[in-house]
């Protein structure tokens, strides 16, 4: 079916800097979606645990950071729903658009509805919308390149540049608004950002041609009642768990992690046993499993920018810049600065190296090891107290975060599209995001163990364990490469 898509003219043959013209549209919508997402996320924890006099809700700090981690995990868990809708109901292109509409509605709810009611409604809508948009924007980009196209890694790295332009600018704007006029103005700015993303997506929609319009596995009308019943049953189960306190604000990250792990195991089982998956595709899915685990470990540290490191930024970093105190949520903008600077260099490097570049498993292992080393660097400041950690030192540590991320994340997006069975293209990308979701919710679980008085132990253990995982991936990389069956 992909051959039919790639033979369409003339849009699919137009290029921009050597890449398919549709990359520009997906670059833009992902930029604004990430502007809204990270702009909101970097002030969310503070909104939850700041006192009412500071404009917050006054929750316990560990509960607040746990909610942030769990919410991030739920965003990635919802990618399976977004992938399912794209594969069976709307197609990837339309799912991206409607996902953006729901995200915007969620930010509006956070901006206008007070207290925990606004948080609940807003976060659920944003999680559902982001899940639909994220899984399908990345998969849609993959359809612009034929399998084996050497430009794909470079294209995904440029796409990643758009993500990080949004991730850089969002916290800058929302942090200033939050500190000067209040949290709800910051949430409102996130809604405006998503609206701008939707506007540009509609205007330049034609650049995508017929890519992503196809519905690979249409849902038969006879299955619609059963599908609706399953959704209602799930909502009833969640409501009962909340009513009986099996699910609480305190255990939300633990439950989220468990659910995503269970869902991931189920998804791997479905793909490995489906009659629609060929033996060659099944072998490639097996090769994806260790990469999935490594990715989850990487993100369990990286996503602590929004949990442990958000608190660290608020309580330990000296944010005084030439006599002016910058908002602590600006820690969320520091790592994207490095990504923006380094992404073009990595794109050029991968394109020029071509098949001579390190294999995907080697890149993954280096990314995980680098992330562990970056965490170990925080141990250097563990003996100090109060807001004494120099901002310049943190800036360079986050530079190590960025190098590690560029070795792993855009490469992970690209290899997922290459290893995906044809019948599960969008849902395979959702499975990739499950690994990010496990890591993100784990960042909330781990945040409960952070204590400023025991920083050396916390950063030391998490860093060393992560380095060990990266070394293990390096040691089995030849096996992974063989089972990738020709995918470099």
Automatic annotation (TrEMBL):
Q: Where in the cell is it found?
A: Cell membrane; Membrane
SUPFAM superfamilies for the chain? MFS general substrate transporter (SSF103473)
Task: Name the UniProt key words of this record, in alphabetical order.
Answer: Cell membrane, Membrane, Transmembrane, Transmembrane helix, Transport
Coiled-coil residue spans: none
**Residue spans crossing the bilayer:** 31-50, 62-84, 96-113, 119-145, 157-177, 183-204, 224-243, 255-275, 287-310, 330-352, 364-383, 389-408, 429-450, 456-476
Taking the first listed entry, what is the main subcellular location of this protein, grouped into a coarse class?
membrane
Q: Which CDD domains does the UniProt record give? A: MFS_DtpA_like
Query: Which InterPro entries does the UniProt record give?
Result: Dipep/tripep_permease, MFS_dom, MFS_trans_sf, MFS_Transporters, POT_fam, PTR2_symporter_CS
What is the protein's membrane topology class?
Multi-pass membrane protein
Residue ranges constituting the Major facilitator superfamily (MFS) profile domain according to the UniProt record: 1-209
Q: Per its UniProt record, what PANTHER family does this chain match?
A: PROTON-DEPENDENT OLIGOPEPTIDE FAMILY TRANSPORT PROTEIN, RESISTANCE PROTEIN MDTM, PUTATIVE-RELATED-RELATED
**UniProt record similarity statement:** Belongs to the major facilitator superfamily. Proton-dependent oligopeptide transporter (POT/PTR) (TC 2.A.17) family.
Tell me the protein's name: Peptide MFS transporter
Query: From what organism does this protein derive?
Result: Nocardia acididurans
